[in-house]
Design goal:
Layout (H helix, E strand, L loop, with lengths): L1 E6 L6 E5 L2 E6 L2 E6 L4 E5 L11 E3 L16 E7 L3 E6 L5 E3 L4 E4 L8 E6 L2 H12 L12 E4 L6 H13 L6 E4 L39 H10 L3 E6 L14 H12 L5 E2 L24 H16 L4 E4 L10 E2 L6 H20 L4 E4 L11 E3 L7 H16 L5 E4 L10 H11 L4 E4 L23 H8 L5 H13 L1 H14 L4 E3 H4 L13 E3 L2 E3 L9 E6 L3 E4 L5 E3 L2 E6 L7 E4 L3 E4 L19 E6 L3 E7 L4 E7 L2 E7 L3 E6 L4
Length: 658
């Protein structure tokens, strides 16, 4: 519930006492005091889940690995266990001091900034925050299947080889992300494409491709992948690049540089000189496009329209953290002081308007309203256990901050190939996150500069991991995981639709559904994925877990072992085990094809006409939804009734006989 909506310039004094928490707001300061011990939110924070005792900076950061207290995706929103929350509608950088009480200095914020006071249970405050910041964008169903990516895939033959491996090993995928596809200058022309540079928007027919070029027939490749049920996402970065001395001249790029300078389409400094990314940062010396300028957006996307025309299904909108100075000026009249955070929002929102609803964006940087434009990606982490725990915390925090769809790089992105233990645990976690993706940095990456032995095939694909460790015996395990993900697409998509409608998230801390259970506020090792209880292993050499089960009876989705709720259970968790449970009274909707076995190989199929519904408990109900269906399935003592519209053939199986 919104208790108050206060405009900073009009505040004299505001006081509220709520469940032993005292809130005081003056024009330049806010203070919350009391005996509270739990503070949640603030965006995609990597450092911890309970932020009490921390100093939180509300700032979009470009931090390669080891994010710690920094984040690509901050949000000026938090809430307390005691039922009070605060949302500060500002673009600007400022701090939340949570070391003792909660202190916020407003003096550097906009005069017209709005402070919104929320009350209620955690799920209610998060839902209210989502309503205030924009409708959540539902990705297409294919986005919920397995994704694969590797920066080393810099030519068509490697994509074709990857597809052969996927088919050979029977490891399905629905999405490929291609990062190193472009000329690395314009970032909109396929590498080594033949064409006559000019300033108008290019059409695909303007290009020709030599048989020995890296991308000898991109359109045909896209059509081939689509026929196989695979979608393609291309990498993007918001810069007018300053080429490095070793890079070859690019005439199209030079024309582009001249045009944006002549037409004032990039960000400027206060003295009207062109703002360039400073040395020591990513893409130093590069100009950044001003996405608050409609003329820039028209020019920018005219260059990229042909990519949509040939069937590209979305973009990985990387970067967006390039405003490093307050003295930058934008066509909107906002300065760098306002745009440090706002720039990423303008960038992602512009791409969303360009691509439309049926494609996806996968974005690293973000700010208020990110859920309306993009899937959130957790960015760059090294393949270490410390980073794995941090990215787990980032996913939970993103969900506690209203970001419904989120994903990370399984096994880590940078550095040494992950240990097989880390990779397996990462896969088991990724299996029950909104986006299940493997990805890896450039061959050798930044760390190859220090040690030549790092230059190797560093793909995090399952087949390369098996090759690196000579563990071909693990293929059946990987198959089970990838088949399970494909089998679960009807359930995941149904839960996603309901999350969007109900203003909830797909991953949920236990406090969201069990706010009156005092155990859950300090127990962060588990979460809900839809209605499933998931307990991933995020520590090295951990083969036993004390798992807390909330109210109800819970059934392991593979072993059918039942566990009583409102208590801890000690379970052994082998390297290949997943600890995932369905509550009695709920259901799991699966696409098993004709096999009626879970998991089973259905390839890349995302739209089975026949679905299997696993019913847990002697009675219960489940609302199933997809593009054409919305029905309520109810069961009691073997009798099943369905009300509403369902276009699928449903086969009902009780968990005890499955």
């Amino acid at each position: 519930m919104i208790q108050a909506r206060l405009k900073r310039s009009e505040i004299k004094e505001y006081h509220l006492e709520w469940n032993h928490v005292k809130l005081e707001i003056h024009q330049d300061r806010m203070k919350l005091s009391g005996t509270f011990e739990h503070v949640f939110g603030f965006g995609e924070k990597y450092n911890a889940i309970n932020q009490k005792g921390q100093l939180i900076e509300n700032k979009v950061h470009d931090q390669f690995c080891n994010q710690n207290e920094k984040t690509y995706f901050p949000l000026p929103f938090f809430f307390l266990k005691e039922g009070m929350g605060v949302f500060i509608q500002t673009r600007r950088v400022f701090n939340f001091n949570l070391e003792k009480d909660i202190d916020v200095d407003f003096s550097n914020l906009e005069e017209d900034v709005i402070i919104i006071i929320l009350t209620g249970k955690p799920n209610e405050m998060i839902s209210d925050f989502m309503k205030l910041t924009g409708e959540t964008l539902l990705p297409p169903k294919w986005a919920f299947g397995p994704w694969m990516s590797a920066h080393r895939w810099n030519k068509q033959s490697l994509i074709e080889e990857m597809m052969k491996n996927s088919e050979h090993y029977k490891l399905p995928l629905t999405t490929i992300v291609i990062e190193q596809w472009s000329d690395e200058a314009t970032f909109y022309v396929f590498n080594q494409a033949q064409y006559s540079p000019h300033q108008d928007g290019l059409k695909y027919s303007d290009f020709s491709f030599k048989s020995d070029s890296p991308w000898h027939d991109p359109k045909n490749m896209i059509e081939m992948l689509h026929k196989k049920g695979i979608r393609i996402i291309l990498w993007q970065i918001p810069v007018i690049k300053e080429l490095e001395p070793h890079e070859s001249r690019n005439m199209q790029h030079e024309l582009d540089q001249q045009y944006v300078i002549q037409n004032n389409l990039t960000c400027k400094k206060i003295d009207h000189s062109i703002y360039k990314i400073p040395k020591g940062r990513w893409f130093p010396g590069s100009m950044i496009p001003d996405f608050s300028n409609q003329s820039m957006k028209d020019w920018w996307f005219k260059k990229r329209q042909y990519l949509l025309d040939i069937g590209i299904d979305g973009f990985k909108t990387d970067g967006g953290e390039s405003v490093y100075s307050d003295d930058v000026v934008f066509s909107s009249a906002l300065s760098g002081k306002d745009m440090v955070n706002q720039y990423s929002k303008d960038y992602i929102e512009s791409y969303h308007k360009f691509t439309g609803k049926n494609r996806v964006l996968f974005s690293r940087a973000g700010y208020i309203g990110q859920q309306s434009n993009s899937i959130q990606w957790a960015g760059d982490q090294k393949s270490t256990w410390k980073e794995f725990k941090a990215v787990y915390q980032a996913g939970i925090n993103a969900s506690l901050s209203g970001q419904t769809f989120w994903g990370f790089d399984i096994g880590g992105f940078a550095g040494d190939i992950p240990s097989m233990e880390l990779y397996m645990r990462g896969t088991e976690f990724g299996l029950f996150t909104p986006i299940m993706q493997v990805h890896s940095e450039p061959v050798g990456g930044q760390f190859a500069l220090l040690e030549a032995s790092k230059i190797m095939n560093n793909e995090r694909t399952p087949w390369n991991m098996m090759d690196q460790y000579n563990r071909q015996d693990l293929l059946p395990v990987f198959q089970q995981f990838y088949w399970m993900r494909m089998n679960m697409l009807p359930y995941i998509y149904s839960e996603s639709i309901k999350a969007v409608i109900l203003k909830k998230t797909l991953m949920k801390h236990l406090m969201i559904e069990y706010p009156d259970d005092h155990h859950v506020y300090d127990h962060h090792q588990q979460y809900l994925f839809g209605e499933l209880l998931v307990a991933p292993v995020i520590e090295e050499n951990q083969y036993e877990q004390d798992i807390y089960f909330p109210e109800g009876e819970w059934v392991h989705i593979l072993s059918n072992q039942t566990y009583e709720g409102k208590k801890f259970h000690h379970l052994e968790t082998g390297l290949n085990d997943i600890q995932v449970f369905a509550r009695k009274g709920s259901a799991l909707v699966l696409n098993l094809g004709d096999h009626q076995k879970f998991p089973s190989d259905i390839g890349n199929e995302i739209d089975g006409k026949q679905l299997t519904v696993i019913l847990y408990g002697n009675q219960g109900k489940y609302r199933y939804m997809d593009q054409q269906s919305d029905c309520l399935i109810e069961w009691e003592n073997g009798s099943v009734t369905v009300t509403g519209e369902c276009t699928k053939k449903l086969i009902y199986v009780h968990q005890s006989s499955f």
